[in-house]
Every structure is written in structure tokens, then in C-alpha cells.
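Good morning C.,

I know you're traveling, so I'll keep this short. The sequence:
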Amino acid sequence: MPLAGGDRLGRVPRGGTSLPDAVRRLAPGPGGIAYVAGEARDVQAVRRVLVQEAGRDRRAVLTKPFWTPGKKGMD
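The C-alpha cells, ready to paste straight into the viewer:
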């Protein structure tokens, strides 16, 4: 199963799985800490899956968006 967060336009390669869908398939339950880093939209989508769907405490989902289209210097 190819895994892709999508290209810069948000498209997933044919036959691929989006990053949020892959996280859903892992079915992580509540508890523990998650660290999510990557393109800003992917980070937001994965955080939504972990907090809203999997029931993780939002304070236990640490995020670091490293880039987003059209922006520089996100550190």
C-alpha cells in the first residue's frame, strides 16, 4: 500500500492511501503521546483524526508543521 500525504495540490497518487486514512487504519486508541510533523495541511488532518476520531487528548498530540505551500520560514 503506497502511502502519501498528497502532492502540493492535495492529490493522492492513484492506488495510494492518504496519510489521515493510514492513521485511521492503524486505529490508535486513546493514551500515549503522538508527534506529527510534515506539511501543514497533513499535520492538521492527522491531528483531527487522532483527537476527534481516536479520542486522544489534544494536549498529547504534538505537532510541527515544517512547510506549507506559499510560505517560508515556518520555524
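Safe travels,
E.
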